[in-house]
Specification:
Oligomer: single chain
CATH superfamily: Gcn5-related N-acetyltransferase (GNAT)
Bound molecules: coenzyme A
CATH topology: Aminopeptidase
Strand content: 25-35%
Strand order of the largest sheet: 1-2-3-4-5-6-8-7
Number of helices: 5
Shape: globular
Number of domains: 1
Radius of gyration: 16 Å
CATH architecture: 3-Layer(aba) Sandwich
Distance between the termini: 16 Å
C-alpha cells in the first residue's frame, strides 16, 4: 500500500507501511507528544535504541500494522509526519480485534493527516482479518475525539480518573468501530 494524499494546505504527502529506517522519526513523534504531557498516559520519553528497534521487530513478528505519513522533501527523521498503529490484543480469543494508536507531529495537525492515516489503517486491518478496531483517549482530547467520531467510532464507556499525571486526574474514553460498517459507508 502506497498512496499520495493532498492535505488541506495543498501539500502532497505519501502514506505507506513503516520500514526500519523510519524508526527514529516515529519515536521522535512519540517523544514530542510525551513532552506535551496532555495526550498520552506516558510519563517518560523513549530514548533507548534497543527499545525502539524491539518495537519495530515486534510489529513484524506479530504481523501488526503501522501506517506512516511522509513529507516528500523534508529530511529524515523529521519527514515522518505521523503514524497510526493497529496492535494485536494480548488475548488468543481476540485476534479479530485491533487496538489503534495515532500521533501526528504538532506542526502538521489539522491538515487531514490523522484522518488519512486512520482510513488506510482500517482498510489494511481488514486485509489481516481484523473485524473491529478499539481505542482509548483522554476525555478532554477534543480534537482526537472529534476525529474518531467523524470516522464512526462509538463510545463504549468512560473510566473516570483512570490516569494521574502531574497532579491531574484524567478520565479515559473507550471507543470501537466495526470495520465492515466503515468500509460499507466509505467504499
Ligand atoms: C489527534 C491527532 C492524531 C489527529 O490528527 P490530525 O492530523 O490533527 O487530524 P485531522 O487533521 O485529520 O483531523 C482533526 C480534526 O479535528 C478538528 N479539530 C481540531 N481541534 C478541535 C477541537 N478542539 N475540537 C473539535 N475538533 C477539533 C479539525 O478541524 C479536524 O476536523 P476537520 O478535518 O473535519 O476539519 C493529532 O492531532 C495528534 O497527534 N494529537 C496529539 C496526540 C494525540 O492526541 N493522539 C491521540 C491520542 S488518543
Amino acid at each position: 500500500m502506497k498512496e499520495v494524499v493532498k492535505l488541506r494546505n495543498g501539500e502532497k504527502i505519501l502514506i505507506r507501511h513503516v520500514i526500519e529506517s523510519d524508526i527514529d522519526g516515529i519515536w521522535n513523534n512519540f517523544n514530542e507528544v510525551v513532552d506535551e504531557k496532555i495526550y498520552l498516559p506516558v510519563l517518560f520519553p523513549v530514548r533507548s535504541k534497543f527499545e525502539k528497534q524491539s518495537w519495530f521487530h515486534n510489529i513484524q513478528k506479530e504481523r501488526e500494522i503501522c501506517i506512516i505519513a511522509i513529507h516528500p522533501t523534508m529530511v529524515s527523521p523529521y519527514n515522518i509526519l505521523g503514524q497510526c498503529e493497529i496492535s494485536n490484543l494480548e488475548w488468543d480469543a481476540a485476534t479479530h480485534v485491533g487496538s489503534l494508536g495515532i500521533i501526528v507531529q504538532r506542526n502538521f495537525r489539522d491538515l487531514g493527516i490523522g484522518f488519512n492515516l486512520i482510513d488506510k489503517a482500517i482498510r489494511e486491518s481488514k486485509r489481516l482479518n481484523k473485524e473491529k478496531i478499539i481505542l482509548s483517549s483522554f476525555l478532554d482530547n477534543e480534537r482526537a475525539l472529534f476525529l474518531y467520531k467523524k470516522i464512526g467510532f462509538k463510545t463504549t464507556g468512560i473510566r473516570k480518573k483512570q490516569f494521574y499525571m502531574d497532579s491531574v486526574y484524567y478520565d479515559e474514553v473507550l471507543m470501537e468501530l466495526w470495520i465492515d460498517d466503515y468500509i460499507n459507508k466509505n467504499p
